[in-house]
Structures are given as structure tokens and as C-alpha cells.
Amino acid sequence: MKIKIINAIIIKNFDTEPFFGELVIQDDKIIDVGQSCLCDVEKTIDANGNIIMPGFVNAHTHAAMTIFKGIASGEKLENWLATMQRKEKELSGSDVYNASLLACLEFAKNGITTINDMYHFYDYSAKAFADAGIRAVVGVSQRYNMNKFITEQKLEELYNSINSISPLITADFYCHATYSCNENMFGVINKLASKYNSFVSTHVSETLEEVGRCATLNNDMSPIELLEDYGFFDRKSLAIHATNVSAKDIQILAKNGASVCANFGSNHKLASGVCPIYQMSKYGVNVCLGTDGSASNNRLDMFREMYLASTSQNILLSNANCFKAKDILKMATVNGAKALGLNNVGTLDVGNFADLIMLNANDVDGIIDNDIFDNLVYTYGTEDILMTIVNGKIIYQNGKYYFNKSKSNILKNAKKVLEKFK
Q: Domain 2-54+352-401 sits in which CATH superfamily?
């Protein structure tokens, strides 16, 4: 189907100025964008002067953990994680499927069009994302769930199986962390990632306790130094959190071309620390943003992540101008796409996938338009999302969802999962 969006304030990317114009989608791709697009279409959407911009890329999340919101609140990471793992031992694949669909309702209404998910029963979550119409990179690991480790052969089979579920779904390889996975497990994902030209990801240097324990057990090496020793950075890699890092660690990340996904909402709530993204950016590290799981955040909200990303650095460095708003917006969109190896996501350039959102520019948050980029980082919120389009298909519009499953069915099944854990 060919769709034209007219009368829109279009933010094609964050290196060019917004303009009033039109955008044309054919099937899953953007085929034209400009002040006037002359072509016959089957459907026209009048934006009525609202903003059209790239959808958010949530570069790290645990979608199914939405059912654990409010549990172990007020605990620091180690105690919080122990509580979560006791709960997770009771999870089934269908629990993860239904909880992941619940998270997708939040992704869609909050303008998140792409996610990078890391969790148990990942083949079930991949199916949920496909049924919701969310673009997802799904991490696969030898730790299939809290009760089961799988062989390298089975891991490879699941990787290929997930890649065949839907054009929206791709798989990558991950290990949970250096403190929970040994060198052999990292060796397996490194080997398979090289075979399939995939990227690898892991949680790293999230707390000072983790860094100290690693140094004690590994001849004063930091977790990032240990990962380098494991060969983790020999391919495209994503370091998640990297909250407590040294200048040497940042240099290792930069030297190896690694990306970092900062998760400010989660790290602040768990008192884990503040990721030094300003210093990382100065070294040329590709920095992107994620929400982490709902259980430690507790919102799947990239507006909040952008606000915290910017203001946290201002406080750390006593500098109110650490980042331009456009640079923060890149972290929430195209930088995440780059980290995930999604070359046709993150901007509204011709030829890219039609993953975009419409924001209300005619209400309280948008009516003052002195600086649109600044407004998007510091003023707008999830309540301003009017429409979410993924792969050329509307999945959310004005409070209504267009998934393969109905909202009422998703909520009904999620409540059953919630009852299991009360």
C-alpha cells in the first residue's frame, strides 16, 4: 500500500532543520519526503500541523519484566536481582509471551518502534514482538531460562529459528554479565557471532561492587578489561550500562569501536551510578539509550531517558550545555539503530524502513515552538504521541492498538500471569 502523510512538521533526521511537508510510504519503506510529494496514493493521512519524526530505538530492555514492576522497589541492584531471579525461576514460556505483549502496548503508545530485548524464553518473546508489530532485536544466550542452560548447537538452532519468525525480528548473541557467565560461555557467543556476522552484547560495570569483585578475582582487571581479554570486542559489540568505568575502560571501548547503551532511569532508581556519556562521546564512543526492564525503571519511556541523559551530565560536570538537544535525540534513535546493526532505521531518509511517530504540536507541550529539538528532549512526553507506525503499518493511533492480538485479550492474559506471582 502507498500512503502519503501531508501537512506535517517533518524531522527527517537531527542534522537538518525540520520543515513543513509530506512523506510517502510504499509498503514498508519511505519512498519520498519533501515539501511536496507528487504521486498517486491509496491512503492520505493529514497530520494537521503535527510533528512526524523517527520512532524511538530502545537499545536495551527486558520486556517481560513489566509484570515485576514494584517488586523489590528500594533495593540496590544485588538484592533486587536476587529477588527477581527467585521470581524468574517460576516463569514459563507462555508467561514471557503474555508479559512481552503487555510491554508492547507500552512501547507502541510511547513511540518506541524498535527494541533490543534480552530475556529468558527468548523464542516466546520474539513471537510476541512479531504479533505486536514491533521491530525487535532479540538476544539469544546459552542461559535459556533460570532453570536451563542449552548447548551451542541448540543455541545456534534457536538463533536461526528466531531470524525466520518475521522480517521485523532479528537475533543477536549475548551473555548476561562477566559475573554470571564464564569465559567459555563468552567464547561460544563470540564464535557464533563471528560465524553469522552478528553483534554481541552484555551488561557490564553496572555497580561499583561488580567492578571491585571483578578486580579481586581477575588480577585487578575491570569488567571491561576482562571482556577485552575474552575477545568480546573483536566484533561489533554493545556494552550495556557501563556506569562505573575508568578513563582506561572508555579508551578500550573507543579503540574497539564498541557502542554503549546507557540506562539512566534504571541506574538512578537502583542507585547504581551515572554513566559518563559525555566523556564517552568525547572519545568517539557511539552512545545510545535504553529503558532497561520495567521492573527497575519503572517506565518504558524514552522521553524520560533523554531528559535524564542530558541533565545527569549537566550535574556531573556543572555544565548546563554538555549536549545539544539534537545529540540526545540521536542517542534515542539513530545511534541505537547503529549499535544494533540496523542500517535502515533511525532517520526518515528515502529507502529507510517506515518507522515513525506523530507528536501533537497543537496542544500545551507543542504550541511553543522556539526550538523543536529542545522541546522534544525537555518538554514533550509520552502523552503527546498520536500515532506510531512500524514497517509502514500503523500499530497505535489515538489510544487504539492495531496488533495481531486485541488489547483486551493482552490485558486479560497479563492479569493471569500477574496472579501467579502475587
A: Urease, subunit C, domain 1 (2.30.40.10)
